[in-house]
Amino acid sequence: MSMDASLDGAVIMEAPAKLNLYLNVTGRRDDGYHELDSLVAFASVGDRLRVELAPELSLEIEGPFAQGLDADEGNLVWRAAKAVREMAKYTGGARMTLTKNLPFASGIGSGSADAAATVRALVRLWGIHPDSHDLSGLALSLGADVPVCLFGRTAYMRGIGELIEPGPALPTSFLVLVNPGVLVSTTAVFAAWQGPYSQKSPNIDDTDDVADFVDQLARHGNDLGVPAMGMAPVIGEVIYALKVAEDCLLAQMSGSGATCFGLFRTREQADRAAEDIRTKCPGWWVESAKLNV
Known about the structure:
By secondary structure, the chain is of the alpha+beta class. The chain is built from 9 helices and 11 strands.
């Protein structure tokens, strides 16, 4: 995640879209939480958070997906800010402005990315020494995807999201992200999943060859695809639209849906495919992006 301190003292933090390049369900704990094995990477599109010093905490949400989001204490940005303030025993506040470019409840971790960006931004704004606090534990308390978003780089995510290790070197490649505009509940998708459990997969090898990378990813898949498509059949239409797009190497659902991604060798190929899908399916959210490596 990149960050910049502007001249007026504000901190601006990017909150990039999180992609589950594969996602396997490997077990279930006694407390009911499912254990996962997933390779997570980030895209060059995302939300943006601006924070600046203020006497109290406040949040304003703008951007194309601001409608329908409450800027109150139930918002993950609010919750993250309060958690950081309590952890550090900080007595001041911050004026927070979230530019919401990503659809929410969409399988690309937009809320989790926003929460992670909030933690990073306020640690910097308030001059908190990160090594003096358990930021990973704080992140997990906010949600299972928040720790990997706080890590902010390609990573394997295991357990319920708390086990993070650096991922492989990825080849330069490009994405088309497509969301059909339906909300899919992660809790409901897991409840509908019927197994069997997957075995932990071998790690993806470092590679600078896109074809090799795609071959390795194709062996894994997304175990949540079947229950998600059972709840929202349009996800299958999205995957088909990506699969038949010219030059698409792999099409897969991210997280619990409904956002899906297609992998391409070049930016030009991704841009062309994105424009074609936009034309054919004008109600869908479609973005081309670079896969951050």
